[in-house]
Amino acid sequence: PGDTSVLAGLYGPAEAKVSKELPDRAALEVLLRPKVGLPGVMERSREQLLRQTCEAVVLGVLHPRTAITLVLQVLSDAGSLLSCCLNAACMALLDAGLPLTALFCGVTCALQPDGTILLDPTARQEQEARAILTFAIASSERKVLMANTKGSCSVEEMQQCLAAAQRAADTVFQFYRDSVRRRYSK
């Protein structure tokens, strides 16, 4: 939803600490900062999902032995937070000019008790939902890079949500194109 916002900062490629350095590619770290308080279990698990998604598209081999740190600060959470984080992460990678094999976007679906699918649910709609599914979808062939499910749904329902998310992804990629165009046409 328009009311969820995340600020992204990307640092690197910089010299990696020896303990974290990878000989063949860049070490990517994602830090998710909640709006208030310290990061907890929820943030840690989301950091992992975000890192895996970013690692799937970043051509880290072009920057071996370096560290790239992506910091995501939650400014407001009114629902669909993970997909907002995914979109902020992709925009940050793109903005930093890192070499990517594809872009990706996040789409959250809420499965209502009656089986209807809501895209981009609010926090309230998430609470009432039977399941919440978030997908990271790549711009190349609309491939799924990450899927995260909370609650219960059938395989068929999951496939319906994925199809809806893949359709919605086109809108997000168009938004990326427009905002990049606006930024570089100034």
Automatic annotation (TrEMBL):
This is Exosome complex component RRP46. Pfam families: RNase_PH (PF01138), RNase_PH_C (PF03725). Signal peptide: none annotated. It comes from the Eukaryota. GO terms for biological process: nuclear mRNA surveillance; poly(A)-dependent snoRNA 3'-end processing; rRNA catabolic process; rRNA processing; U4 snRNA 3'-end processing. GO terms for molecular function: DNA binding; RNA binding. Keywords: Cytoplasm, DNA-binding, Exosome, Nucleus, Phosphoprotein, rRNA processing. The lineage of its organism: Eukaryota, Metazoa, Chordata, Craniata, Vertebrata. Residues 2-99, 103-167 form the Exoribonuclease phosphorolytic domain.
